[in-house]
Amino acid sequence: MFTDYLRISINNLLQRKTRSFLTIIGIVIGIMAVVALISIGQGLQESITGQFEKIGSDRIIIQGGIMSYGSPGLGSDKLTQDDFEVIRDVLGVKTAAPVSFKIVEIEYKENRGITMISAMHEDYVEEMFLGMDLYEIEKGDMPKKGNRGNICIGSRLASGEFWGEDGPKMIIRSKITLGETNFEKEFRINCIMKETGSPDDDSAIYMLMEDFKEIFNEPADEYGVIFAKTKEGFDVDKVAEEIEEELKDARGDENFQVATLEQVIESFGSILGILNMFLVGIAAISLLVGGIGIMNTIYTSVLERTREIGIMKSIGAKNNDILLIFLIEAGTLGLIGGIIGCGIGILLGKAVELAAHESGFTLFNALISPGLILGALMFSIAVGVVSGMLPARQASRLKPVDALRFD
Fold first, then answer.
1. Which residues pair with 259 in a beta bridge?
2. CB within 10 Å: which end of the chain, N or C, has fewer?
3. What is the DSSP string of 42-88?
4. What is the pLDDT of residues 236-248, one digit of tens each?
5. pTM, whole model, 2 decimals?
6. Which residues pair with 151 in a beta bridge?
7. What pLDDT, in 10s, does the model give residues 350-364?
8. CA 239, CA 236: separation in Å to the nearest integer?
């Protein structure tokens, strides 16, 4: 009976507790790493995908030079007013809006730091910026056209977290200084954005384009990024292709990038997928070491129990019976290592999640699914069984007479 095989295998492992524990460590480390890394990787991908989806699937991003998702619009290649007008006139484009970005030093109550400014065109704030689920105003109102010297700030700036522990809070009508080399100007806070879960966005400053161009002496007809919104009933990918063709003809070069939100998500997914495969590959080395440890343990067990095997065979045990006993023993080692590894892996994933939340990445959650845990446990059992196959076959093929004479 299977229960008898299992009882014999567990009794043997309990009789050699220290050896069994040392054998299990390799499996524990491997499964722990696999569970932690996959849960973190999947959680990161889910959070990034969720953020992009909030922007809206009908949005198209156009940027000069090479598309940079980490710091959009900060490169030396810019888009122009002529590019904006070409994009706006493409069939299928409902509206387009230029946005500019800049890294700037800020000061508030003798605290200094560096953050990003996002400048939005006055005519498209409501539809293109506040129309995204990603950005919502918590307090106050977005500055209106002509309402100079007013800005919006992210939730981390407002709460004081941006400055560090016990940083000064900011409220509506607080004043903050934006500065560059040999230049500083004070701005009034007109609104505070709701938390997005991204430290960069929650630490950003949002202002109108007319202020941005004036105070930073930026060319009036240059922009960092242009966002386009497609009309209902139009295919986003086809509209993006049409924008690309029109821009090529108008500019006479291909020094720009056009991407849909779907393409951006796929790019991030590919990068994270490659990273996950690399990290899991490293974790697999620990599993290989653990498998070799199980194989060595089962070989040792076969040698120590050779006479016992001979006795079992002499009273009627078949080759398959002996094979199953040792395979169950190897699989049990893998299962125990898998259970402990899953537990530690879950704790590690949650520890990273907690650390991320403490750092302001509240949108990140380690994704621990039942499928991941079940898969990890099945894999750990498989590693144990495969590792124990050779010594188990050797044990099953022992002849009773030779086994009983073994000293």
1. 61
2. C
3. HHHHHHHHHHHHHH-TTEEEEEESS--SSSTT-SS--EEHHHHHHHH
4. 889 999 999 999 9
5. 0.71
6. 189
7. 999 998 888 777 778
8. 5
